[in-house]
Specification:
Mean pLDDT: 95
Strand content: 5-15%
InterPro entries: Aminotrans_3, Aminotrans_3_PPA_site, PyrdxlP-dep_Trfase, PyrdxlP-dep_Trfase_major, PyrdxlP-dep_Trfase_small
Shape: globular
Radius of gyration: 21 Å
Number of strands: 14
Helix content: 25-40%
Cofactor: pyridoxal 5'-phosphate
Keywords: Pyridoxal phosphate
GO molecular function: pyridoxal phosphate binding; transaminase activity
Structural class: alpha/beta
Pfam families: Aminotran_3
Bound molecules: pyridoxal-5'-phosphate
Strand order of the largest sheet: 4-10-9-8-7-5-6
CATH topology of the largest domain: Aspartate Aminotransferase, domain 2
Oligomer: single chain
Protein backbone atom coordinates (compact mmCIF):
# COMPACT_ATOMS: atom_id res chain seq x y z
CA UNK A 1 0.00 0.00 0.00
CA UNK A 2 2.73 2.38 1.06
CA UNK A 3 4.37 2.05 -2.35
CA UNK A 4 1.26 2.87 -4.34
CA UNK A 5 1.39 5.66 -6.88
CA UNK A 6 1.60 9.34 -6.02
CA UNK A 7 -1.41 10.74 -4.15
CA UNK A 8 -3.26 7.48 -4.28
CA UNK A 9 -4.80 7.05 -0.84
CA UNK A 10 -8.48 7.73 -0.55
CA UNK A 11 -10.37 8.52 2.66
CA UNK A 12 -13.91 8.32 1.28
CA UNK A 13 -15.07 5.64 3.70
CA UNK A 14 -13.92 7.72 6.70
CA UNK A 15 -15.84 10.70 5.33
CA UNK A 16 -18.93 8.60 4.83
CA UNK A 17 -18.80 7.10 8.38
CA UNK A 18 -18.30 10.57 9.87
CA UNK A 19 -21.17 12.10 7.95
CA UNK A 20 -23.52 9.21 8.83
CA UNK A 21 -22.65 9.42 12.52
CA UNK A 22 -22.74 13.17 12.84
CA UNK A 23 -26.44 12.70 13.51
CA UNK A 24 -25.40 11.25 16.90
CA UNK A 25 -21.97 12.70 17.69
CA UNK A 26 -21.50 16.45 17.25
CA UNK A 27 -19.27 16.92 14.24
CA UNK A 28 -18.49 13.19 14.27
CA UNK A 29 -15.73 13.71 16.85
CA UNK A 30 -15.47 13.63 20.63
CA UNK A 31 -12.79 16.28 20.98
CA UNK A 32 -12.68 19.54 19.02
CA UNK A 33 -8.99 18.95 18.45
CA UNK A 34 -9.96 16.08 16.12
CA UNK A 35 -12.08 18.25 13.82
CA UNK A 36 -9.12 19.84 12.09
CA UNK A 37 -7.49 18.84 8.98
CA UNK A 38 -8.44 17.95 5.42
CA UNK A 39 -9.73 15.48 4.29
CA UNK A 40 -11.74 15.58 7.54
CA UNK A 41 -11.73 13.35 10.62
CA UNK A 42 -10.52 9.80 9.97
CA UNK A 43 -12.00 6.61 11.40
CA UNK A 44 -9.61 3.89 12.53
CA UNK A 45 -9.97 0.19 13.06
CA UNK A 46 -6.65 -0.80 14.58
CA UNK A 47 -3.23 0.40 15.69
CA UNK A 48 -0.05 -1.63 15.70
CA UNK A 49 3.47 -0.38 16.28
CA UNK A 50 4.04 2.76 14.21
CA UNK A 51 0.92 2.16 12.10
CA UNK A 52 -2.79 2.92 12.17
CA UNK A 53 -5.25 1.09 9.92
CA UNK A 54 -8.34 3.04 8.86
CA UNK A 55 -11.77 2.07 7.53
CA UNK A 56 -10.65 2.76 3.95
CA UNK A 57 -8.07 -0.02 4.27
CA UNK A 58 -5.14 2.42 4.42
CA UNK A 59 -2.09 1.71 6.54
CA UNK A 60 -0.82 5.03 7.84
CA UNK A 61 2.46 5.74 9.62
CA UNK A 62 1.23 7.61 12.67
CA UNK A 63 3.02 10.65 14.07
CA UNK A 64 0.06 11.83 16.14
CA UNK A 65 0.91 8.96 18.49
CA UNK A 66 -2.26 9.57 20.48
CA UNK A 67 -1.39 13.32 20.68
CA UNK A 68 1.88 12.34 22.30
CA UNK A 69 0.63 9.54 24.53
CA UNK A 70 1.89 6.50 22.61
CA UNK A 71 5.55 6.66 23.53
CA UNK A 72 5.80 2.88 23.02
CA UNK A 73 3.77 2.92 19.80
CA UNK A 74 0.39 1.28 19.28
CA UNK A 75 -0.61 -1.90 21.11
CA UNK A 76 2.69 -2.77 22.82
CA UNK A 77 2.56 -6.42 23.95
CA UNK A 78 3.58 -5.77 27.57
CA UNK A 79 0.90 -3.15 28.14
CA UNK A 80 -1.77 -5.23 26.37
CA UNK A 81 -0.99 -8.28 28.53
CA UNK A 82 -0.95 -6.32 31.81
CA UNK A 83 -4.27 -4.68 30.97
CA UNK A 84 -5.93 -7.97 30.00
CA UNK A 85 -4.73 -9.60 33.22
CA UNK A 86 -6.09 -6.71 35.32
CA UNK A 87 -9.46 -6.82 33.55
CA UNK A 88 -9.74 -10.42 34.72
CA UNK A 89 -9.06 -9.30 38.30
CA UNK A 90 -11.55 -6.45 38.36
CA UNK A 91 -12.08 -3.03 36.84
CA UNK A 92 -12.96 -0.49 39.52
CA UNK A 93 -12.91 -1.02 43.28
CA UNK A 94 -13.64 2.49 44.62
CA UNK A 95 -10.87 1.58 47.01
CA UNK A 96 -7.15 1.04 46.86
CA UNK A 97 -5.26 -1.61 44.91
CA UNK A 98 -1.65 -2.74 45.05
CA UNK A 99 -1.18 -1.90 41.40
CA UNK A 100 -1.74 1.80 42.08
CA UNK A 101 0.93 1.81 44.77
CA UNK A 102 3.35 0.11 42.41
CA UNK A 103 2.59 2.76 39.77
CA UNK A 104 3.05 5.53 42.35
CA UNK A 105 6.39 4.14 43.50
CA UNK A 106 7.68 3.94 39.93
CA UNK A 107 6.71 7.53 39.09
CA UNK A 108 8.10 8.88 42.37
CA UNK A 109 11.41 7.12 41.77
CA UNK A 110 11.70 8.56 38.28
CA UNK A 111 10.54 12.16 38.58
CA UNK A 112 12.87 14.46 40.53
CA UNK A 113 10.09 16.62 42.02
CA UNK A 114 7.85 13.67 42.95
CA UNK A 115 8.05 13.19 46.69
CA UNK A 116 4.33 12.43 46.72
CA UNK A 117 1.72 11.77 44.06
CA UNK A 118 -2.00 11.79 43.42
CA UNK A 119 -3.44 10.24 40.25
CA UNK A 120 -6.19 11.71 38.09
CA UNK A 121 -7.59 10.95 34.65
CA UNK A 122 -6.65 13.87 32.40
CA UNK A 123 -4.12 16.63 32.11
CA UNK A 124 -6.83 19.29 32.21
CA UNK A 125 -8.04 17.95 35.52
CA UNK A 126 -4.69 17.78 37.33
CA UNK A 127 -3.95 21.34 36.19
CA UNK A 128 -7.07 22.37 38.13
CA UNK A 129 -5.83 20.45 41.16
CA UNK A 130 -2.48 22.26 40.98
CA UNK A 131 -4.10 25.69 40.99
CA UNK A 132 -6.36 24.82 43.91
CA UNK A 133 -3.42 23.43 45.84
CA UNK A 134 -1.24 26.46 45.15
CA UNK A 135 -3.98 28.81 46.31
CA UNK A 136 -4.51 26.83 49.50
CA UNK A 137 -0.79 26.62 50.22
CA UNK A 138 -0.06 30.32 49.66
CA UNK A 139 -3.32 31.99 50.63
CA UNK A 140 -3.11 33.93 47.34
CA UNK A 141 -5.44 33.62 44.38
CA UNK A 142 -3.58 34.67 41.23
CA UNK A 143 -1.91 32.29 38.81
CA UNK A 144 0.54 33.29 36.07
CA UNK A 145 0.29 31.44 32.78
CA UNK A 146 2.14 32.15 29.56
CA UNK A 147 1.04 32.95 26.02
CA UNK A 148 0.82 29.82 23.91
CA UNK A 149 1.06 27.42 26.88
CA UNK A 150 -1.86 25.02 27.17
CA UNK A 151 -3.08 23.60 30.46
CA UNK A 152 -6.36 22.05 29.35
CA UNK A 153 -9.71 23.17 28.10
CA UNK A 154 -11.33 24.56 31.27
CA UNK A 155 -12.53 28.16 31.47
CA UNK A 156 -9.92 29.42 33.91
CA UNK A 157 -6.87 28.40 31.83
CA UNK A 158 -8.09 28.45 28.23
CA UNK A 159 -6.69 31.91 27.65
CA UNK A 160 -4.04 33.03 25.15
CA UNK A 161 -3.52 29.44 24.23
CA UNK A 162 -3.65 29.22 20.48
CA UNK A 163 -5.44 32.42 19.56
CA UNK A 164 -5.14 34.68 16.60
CA UNK A 165 -2.83 37.35 17.93
CA UNK A 166 -4.58 40.25 16.22
CA UNK A 167 -6.17 41.45 19.45
CA UNK A 168 -3.54 40.19 21.90
CA UNK A 169 -1.91 43.57 22.51
CA UNK A 170 1.82 44.21 22.87
CA UNK A 171 4.19 41.32 23.72
CA UNK A 172 5.27 43.06 26.97
CA UNK A 173 1.68 43.38 28.18
CA UNK A 174 -0.40 40.66 26.54
CA UNK A 175 -4.15 41.07 26.47
CA UNK A 176 -5.82 37.73 27.38
CA UNK A 177 -7.50 36.09 24.38
CA UNK A 178 -10.18 33.50 25.09
CA UNK A 179 -10.09 30.07 23.47
CA UNK A 180 -13.82 29.44 23.27
CA UNK A 181 -17.16 31.11 23.10
CA UNK A 182 -19.08 30.82 26.35
CA UNK A 183 -16.06 31.21 28.62
CA UNK A 184 -16.53 33.03 31.90
CA UNK A 185 -14.55 36.25 32.02
CA UNK A 186 -14.70 36.20 35.82
CA UNK A 187 -11.79 33.76 35.80
CA UNK A 188 -9.56 36.50 34.45
CA UNK A 189 -9.63 38.07 37.91
CA UNK A 190 -7.24 35.34 39.02
CA UNK A 191 -5.22 34.83 35.86
CA UNK A 192 -2.20 36.83 34.72
CA UNK A 193 -0.92 36.27 31.18
CA UNK A 194 2.74 36.91 30.42
CA UNK A 195 5.13 36.19 27.56
CA UNK A 196 7.33 33.15 28.25
CA UNK A 197 11.14 33.13 28.27
CA UNK A 198 11.21 36.69 29.65
CA UNK A 199 12.64 36.76 33.17
CA UNK A 200 12.40 40.52 33.59
CA UNK A 201 8.64 40.47 32.94
CA UNK A 202 8.23 37.55 35.34
CA UNK A 203 10.21 39.23 38.10
CA UNK A 204 8.30 42.47 37.65
CA UNK A 205 4.94 40.73 38.12
CA UNK A 206 5.82 38.11 40.75
CA UNK A 207 7.54 40.70 42.94
CA UNK A 208 4.17 42.35 43.62
CA UNK A 209 3.72 39.47 46.07
CA UNK A 210 0.21 38.34 45.12
CA UNK A 211 0.96 35.34 42.89
CA UNK A 212 0.11 31.84 44.17
CA UNK A 213 1.78 29.95 41.32
CA UNK A 214 3.65 30.34 38.08
CA UNK A 215 2.48 27.55 35.78
CA UNK A 216 4.38 26.72 32.60
CA UNK A 217 5.29 24.05 30.11
CA UNK A 218 9.02 23.72 30.90
CA UNK A 219 9.57 23.35 27.16
CA UNK A 220 6.74 24.72 25.06
CA UNK A 221 5.54 21.71 23.09
CA UNK A 222 1.80 22.03 22.61
CA UNK A 223 2.57 24.83 20.14
CA UNK A 224 5.94 24.49 18.46
CA UNK A 225 8.85 22.90 20.25
CA UNK A 226 10.52 25.80 22.00
CA UNK A 227 13.21 25.25 24.62
CA UNK A 228 13.55 27.44 27.66
CA UNK A 229 16.20 30.13 27.15
CA UNK A 230 19.44 29.27 28.97
CA UNK A 231 18.93 30.13 32.64
CA UNK A 232 15.22 30.81 32.27
CA UNK A 233 13.93 27.87 34.32
CA UNK A 234 16.55 28.44 37.04
CA UNK A 235 15.72 32.16 37.05
CA UNK A 236 11.98 31.47 37.28
CA UNK A 237 12.60 29.16 40.20
CA UNK A 238 14.71 31.75 42.02
CA UNK A 239 12.08 34.47 41.47
CA UNK A 240 9.32 32.17 42.74
CA UNK A 241 11.32 31.22 45.85
CA UNK A 242 12.16 34.81 46.62
CA UNK A 243 8.53 35.90 46.57
CA UNK A 244 6.81 32.86 48.14
CA UNK A 245 5.27 31.74 44.84
CA UNK A 246 5.04 28.10 43.80
CA UNK A 247 6.54 26.90 40.52
CA UNK A 248 4.38 24.43 38.60
CA UNK A 249 5.69 22.53 35.57
CA UNK A 250 3.06 21.16 33.25
CA UNK A 251 4.85 18.12 31.87
CA UNK A 252 1.81 16.62 30.20
CA UNK A 253 3.71 16.51 26.89
CA UNK A 254 7.32 16.62 28.04
CA UNK A 255 6.89 13.95 30.72
CA UNK A 256 8.40 10.58 29.77
CA UNK A 257 9.16 12.05 26.34
CA UNK A 258 12.05 14.47 26.86
CA UNK A 259 13.51 11.69 28.97
CA UNK A 260 12.37 9.35 31.71
CA UNK A 261 12.52 12.08 34.33
CA UNK A 262 10.81 14.62 32.05
CA UNK A 263 11.95 18.14 31.24
CA UNK A 264 12.76 18.76 34.91
CA UNK A 265 15.46 16.10 34.85
CA UNK A 266 16.71 17.12 31.42
CA UNK A 267 17.05 20.80 32.34
CA UNK A 268 17.99 20.17 35.96
CA UNK A 269 15.32 22.33 37.60
CA UNK A 270 12.98 20.77 40.17
CA UNK A 271 9.62 22.56 40.49
CA UNK A 272 7.39 22.52 43.57
CA UNK A 273 4.53 20.80 41.74
CA UNK A 274 4.39 19.02 38.38
CA UNK A 275 1.74 17.53 36.16
CA UNK A 276 1.89 14.45 34.00
CA UNK A 277 -0.57 12.70 31.66
CA UNK A 278 -0.30 11.50 28.03
CA UNK A 279 2.75 9.17 27.90
CA UNK A 280 2.52 8.09 31.54
CA UNK A 281 0.39 5.04 30.60
CA UNK A 282 0.87 4.83 26.81
CA UNK A 283 -2.66 5.83 25.91
CA UNK A 284 -4.68 4.95 29.00
CA UNK A 285 -6.46 7.87 30.68
CA UNK A 286 -4.03 8.51 33.53
CA UNK A 287 -2.72 11.80 34.85
CA UNK A 288 -0.72 12.68 37.94
CA UNK A 289 -0.02 15.67 40.12
CA UNK A 290 3.26 15.23 41.96
CA UNK A 291 5.49 17.42 44.06
CA UNK A 292 6.81 18.38 47.45
CA UNK A 293 5.46 16.11 50.16
CA UNK A 294 4.21 19.01 52.30
CA UNK A 295 2.19 20.33 49.37
CA UNK A 296 0.72 17.14 47.95
CA UNK A 297 -0.08 15.95 51.50
CA UNK A 298 -2.46 18.89 51.74
CA UNK A 299 -4.87 16.74 49.73
CA UNK A 300 -4.92 14.35 52.67
CA UNK A 301 -4.53 16.59 55.68
CA UNK A 302 -4.70 20.21 54.58
CA UNK A 303 -8.37 20.48 53.71
CA UNK A 304 -7.77 20.56 49.94
CA UNK A 305 -10.24 18.40 48.08
CA UNK A 306 -9.14 16.14 45.26
CA UNK A 307 -11.57 13.52 44.01
CA UNK A 308 -12.50 11.46 40.99
CA UNK A 309 -14.44 8.24 40.46
CA UNK A 310 -11.90 6.99 37.96
CA UNK A 311 -8.71 8.14 39.74
CA UNK A 312 -6.14 5.32 39.87
CA UNK A 313 -8.52 2.99 38.06
CA UNK A 314 -6.84 -0.44 38.35
CA UNK A 315 -6.77 -1.22 34.62
CA UNK A 316 -5.21 2.15 33.87
CA UNK A 317 -2.77 1.60 36.74
CA UNK A 318 -1.76 -1.76 35.27
CA UNK A 319 -1.09 0.07 32.01
CA UNK A 320 0.97 2.63 33.93
CA UNK A 321 3.15 -0.02 35.57
CA UNK A 322 3.69 -1.87 32.28
CA UNK A 323 4.48 1.37 30.42
CA UNK A 324 6.92 2.53 33.07
CA UNK A 325 8.58 -0.90 33.06
CA UNK A 326 9.14 -0.56 29.31
CA UNK A 327 10.54 2.97 29.63
CA UNK A 328 14.09 1.82 30.27
CA UNK A 329 17.18 3.88 29.49
CA UNK A 330 17.61 1.60 26.44
CA UNK A 331 14.15 2.60 25.24
CA UNK A 332 15.23 6.24 25.15
CA UNK A 333 18.58 5.47 23.53
CA UNK A 334 17.00 3.36 20.81
CA UNK A 335 14.06 5.59 19.98
CA UNK A 336 16.17 8.74 20.13
CA UNK A 337 18.31 7.44 17.26
CA UNK A 338 15.18 7.07 15.10
CA UNK A 339 13.79 10.44 16.16
CA UNK A 340 16.99 12.30 15.41
CA UNK A 341 17.34 10.56 12.03
CA UNK A 342 13.83 11.59 11.13
CA UNK A 343 14.24 15.15 12.38
CA UNK A 344 17.49 15.71 10.50
CA UNK A 345 16.20 13.89 7.41
CA UNK A 346 13.14 16.13 7.45
CA UNK A 347 15.32 19.22 7.56
CA UNK A 348 17.36 17.98 4.59
CA UNK A 349 14.37 16.93 2.48
CA UNK A 350 12.56 20.24 3.00
CA UNK A 351 15.70 22.21 2.15
CA UNK A 352 16.31 20.06 -0.94
CA UNK A 353 12.77 20.85 -2.12
CA UNK A 354 13.45 24.58 -1.63
CA UNK A 355 11.01 25.00 1.26
CA UNK A 356 11.94 27.53 3.92
CA UNK A 357 11.24 25.74 7.20
CA UNK A 358 12.41 25.56 10.81
CA UNK A 359 12.70 22.10 12.33
CA UNK A 360 13.16 22.43 16.08
CA UNK A 361 12.83 20.33 19.17
CA UNK A 362 13.92 17.13 20.77
CA UNK A 363 14.49 13.46 19.95
CA UNK A 364 11.00 12.04 20.48
CA UNK A 365 9.10 15.23 19.74
CA UNK A 366 9.95 17.92 17.24
CA UNK A 367 8.15 20.63 15.33
CA UNK A 368 8.17 21.84 11.75
CA UNK A 369 7.21 25.44 10.92
CA UNK A 370 7.13 26.64 7.31
CA UNK A 371 8.08 30.15 6.29
CA UNK A 372 10.14 31.26 9.31
CA UNK A 373 13.65 32.67 8.84
CA UNK A 374 14.81 31.60 12.29
CA UNK A 375 13.65 29.16 14.96
CA UNK A 376 10.74 30.56 16.98
CA UNK A 377 11.69 31.73 20.45
CA UNK A 378 8.17 32.64 21.53
CA UNK A 379 4.62 31.82 20.64
CA UNK A 380 4.37 35.13 18.81
CA UNK A 381 7.23 34.13 16.51
CA UNK A 382 5.49 30.87 15.78
CA UNK A 383 2.24 32.61 14.93
CA UNK A 384 4.00 34.09 11.88
CA UNK A 385 4.57 30.64 10.33
CA UNK A 386 2.96 29.68 7.03
CA UNK A 387 0.18 27.50 8.43
CA UNK A 388 -1.68 27.12 5.15
CA UNK A 389 1.48 25.93 3.38
CA UNK A 390 2.16 23.43 6.13
CA UNK A 391 -1.44 22.17 6.01
CA UNK A 392 -0.98 21.48 2.27
CA UNK A 393 2.17 19.53 3.14
CA UNK A 394 0.44 17.37 5.78
CA UNK A 395 -2.39 16.63 3.35
CA UNK A 396 0.10 15.60 0.68
CA UNK A 397 1.88 13.44 3.26
CA UNK A 398 -1.36 11.80 4.34
CA UNK A 399 -2.03 10.82 0.75
CA UNK A 400 1.40 9.19 0.82
CA UNK A 401 0.45 7.22 3.94
CA UNK A 402 2.00 9.42 6.65
CA UNK A 403 -0.24 10.98 9.28
CA UNK A 404 1.29 14.08 10.87
CA UNK A 405 -0.38 16.85 12.86
CA UNK A 406 -1.37 19.96 10.96
CA UNK A 407 -0.03 22.11 13.76
CA UNK A 408 3.53 20.93 13.06
CA UNK A 409 4.24 18.55 15.94
CA UNK A 410 5.83 15.16 15.26
CA UNK A 411 5.66 12.53 18.01
CA UNK A 412 8.03 9.59 17.67
CA UNK A 413 7.77 6.23 19.45
CA UNK A 414 10.15 3.32 19.86
CA UNK A 415 8.28 1.66 16.97
CA UNK A 416 9.35 4.32 14.49
CA UNK A 417 12.38 2.29 13.49
CA UNK A 418 14.81 2.74 10.59
CA UNK A 419 12.43 1.13 8.12
CA UNK A 420 9.56 3.41 9.18
CA UNK A 421 11.83 6.45 9.07
CA UNK A 422 12.94 5.48 5.53
CA UNK A 423 9.33 5.19 4.40
CA UNK A 424 8.50 8.50 6.05
CA UNK A 425 11.37 10.37 4.45
CA UNK A 426 10.44 8.96 1.04
CA UNK A 427 6.92 10.33 1.57
CA UNK A 428 8.32 13.66 2.81
CA UNK A 429 10.38 13.94 -0.38
CA UNK A 430 7.31 13.50 -2.59
CA UNK A 431 5.05 15.73 -0.48
CA UNK A 432 7.65 18.48 -0.18
CA UNK A 433 8.25 18.59 -3.95
CA UNK A 434 4.51 18.63 -4.51
CA UNK A 435 3.84 21.63 -2.27
CA UNK A 436 6.96 23.46 -3.40
CA UNK A 437 5.98 23.29 -7.08
N1 LIG B 1 -1.16 20.39 29.44
C1 LIG B 1 -0.52 20.25 28.27
C2 LIG B 1 0.88 20.80 28.13
C3 LIG B 1 -1.12 19.60 27.19
O1 LIG B 1 -0.50 19.50 26.01
C4 LIG B 1 -2.43 19.08 27.38
C5 LIG B 1 -3.12 18.38 26.28
O2 LIG B 1 -2.74 18.43 25.15
C6 LIG B 1 -3.06 19.26 28.61
C7 LIG B 1 -2.39 19.91 29.63
C8 LIG B 1 -4.45 18.75 28.83
O3 LIG B 1 -4.43 17.37 28.92
P1 LIG B 1 -5.75 16.52 28.60
O4 LIG B 1 -6.00 16.63 27.14
O5 LIG B 1 -5.37 15.12 29.05
O6 LIG B 1 -6.85 17.07 29.42
Amino acid sequence: QQARALNSLSFDESSSVISKNSRYVAGGVNSNFRLGMAPGPLVFKRGEGAYLFDVDGNRLIDYYCGMGAMVLGHSPAGVQAAVKAQVDEGILFAGQSEVEFEAARMICERIPSAQRIRFGSSGSEVAQAAMRLARAATGRSKIIKFEGHYHGWFDNVLWSTAPALADAGPAEAPVPVGGSRGQSRLDLEDLVILGWNDLAALEARVSKGDIAAVMMEPAMCNQGAISPAPGYLEGAQAICRKHGTLLVFDEVITGFRLGRGGAQERFGVTPDISLFAKAIANGFPVAAIVGRADLIDMFATGGVLHGGTFNAQPVAMAATVATQAALTPEHYEKSSVFGVRLREGMREELAAAGIKAQVTGFELMFHVAFGLDAPAKTYRDLARADKAGYARFTLALLKQGVRALERGAWFVSSEHNDDVVDQTLAAVRIAAREVAS
